[in-house]
Specification:
By secondary structure, the chain is α+β, with helices and mostly antiparallel strands. Helix content is about 45%, strand content about 20%. A hairpin with a 6-residue loop joins strand 13 and strand 14. Helix 4 crosses helix 5, helix 5 runs antiparallel to helix 6 and helix 9 packs antiparallel against helix 11. The longest helix has about 30 residues.
Length: about 475
Amino acid sequence: LVMFPVLYTDVTDAWRLMDRNKRLAIGAAGIAVELSLACIATLLWTFLPDGPLRSVMFSIATVGWVLSLAINLNPLMRFDGYYLFGDAIGIDNLQSRSFALGRWRMREVLFGLGAAAPEALPSGKRRILIWYAWTVWVYRLVLFTGIAVLVYYMAFKALGIILFLVEIIYFIVKPIGSEVLSWWKDGVSIRAGRRTTKTVCAAIAVLVLFFVPVSTRMTMPAVIEAGNIAWVYPQHAGEVAEVRVKPGDPVEAGDVLAILKSPELDHQAAVTARNLALVRMRLARRASDSQDRAQSLSLEHEAVSLAAALSGLKKEADQLVIKAPIAGIVSEFNSEIHKGRAIGRSELIALISGRGARVVRGYLDEHQVRRLGDRPIDGTFLVEAPGFGRIPVAMDSVAKSSAPKIDIPELASVHGGVIAVRPQGGNNNVQLVPTTSMYLATLRIEGGAEVPTFSARGTVDVEGDRSSLASRAFRQIAAVLIRESGF
C-alpha cells in the first residue's frame, strides 16, 4: 500500500456464498478485530503508568473505537457497515435500489402521481429502504457541506473558494438540480397530480413564514444580582501575608479583606529612609562642617526629594492593605488567594455585592440589539432556581459597543451558560472572549415580585421589533461574506 507492505485479505468472492450469516461474519471480521484491539488497548491504558506506552495504548484505543463505530460501522457510508446492513436485510445494490424507491416515494408524497414502484418488495422492506435513502440524502448534505467548509479553511483563500464551489456544486447542487430537471420533464403529469395543488400551497406557506416578519419574542441569558457590585483587584503586586474574609462574610466600606507584603518595596523604603536620615544629619552639622555648609542648598533639595520618595513608598505600602470599597457581602473570593502566594495587579481577589436594590444583567447579540428600537422595553425574568415565578423587568440600558469579554462568568459556555466563548490568557488571568458580538444590557425590576437574595442565573423574555427568518439569514450570510472578504 503506497510502497509499504501491509496485511491484506481478499474477500471479494464472499458474495458467492449462499449463506447470509457467513457473509455477515466475513463483513464483520475487520470491525470485530478493531474493536477487540480497542478493548485490549483500553484495558492496558487503565492499568499502565503514565508514559509513552500508556499514550500509545490510548491512541490505539481511541482510533479503534472511532474508526469502528463512527466510520466502518456506519451504514450511511460505503464501508463495512453498509455491506453488513445490506446483507442483514437481504438487499444487494442497496444504495441504487433504495435511492430509486426514495425518489419514487418522494414524488408520490409531493405530487401523488400514482406511478408504480420501481420494484415489487414487501411493504416492511420497502419502508426500510425508503427511510434509508432519505437518511443518506440528509447525511450527505451535512457531510459534503462540512467538507466544503473544511477545504475552504485548509487551503489559501483563492484555492479554498474554488474547492468550496466544486464541492457544493458537484455533490449538492448537481443532484438536486437533476431531480428538479426530472420534475420539469414530467410537468404534464405533475400538474395533473392530485397533491400538486396542496404541495404548491404548502410551499407558498413556508415561503410566507420565511419572508414575513412575524416573530417578536427575544430571549437573553441574564443573572439577577445586587445593583451595586465591586470587583476588588490589588493596586500593587505583592505576596499574600494575611486573609481576613471568606465568601458570605458581611463587610463595611473600608474593612480589610487581605494584607499583602512586598520585600522589594520594604527594601526601597528602608534604603530611602536611611539616605534621608543621612542627609538630615549632614544638614544638622553644616554649621561645623565647611563642606556640608558649601553643599547646603543641594542637601536641602536632596532631603525634599527623598522625603517625597519616602512618602510615595509609604502610600504604595498602604495599597498593600486591600479594603472593601463598598458595604455588602463577599459574594466570591478567589480560592487561590492564600498566605505566601504572590499575586499581580490583574488578579481578581473578591466580588462584593452591595446591599442596595437588585438588578438583572445579561447580554444581547447584535441582531437582538437592532430589534430593540426606541420604545420602552418590558419583559419578564425567569430564574433557573426553583421556587420563584416570573419577575417583571424593564430595559434600563444597553451598551453602545460590544463587550470585549464576558464579565458574568455564569453566562459563559465554559461555566454552563449559553454564550459561546473562547478562554484567552493563562493562570488566573483568563478572559472569556465571546465568539460573536455581545452587548451588555441592564434591566430594573418592576413591581413587588419576590426576588432571590442571592445571585441567580435565568432567562429574560422581551418583545422586540418584528423580524423574519429571511432577514436573519441574509444578515448572517452577509456578515460571513464581509468577514471572509477581508473588507
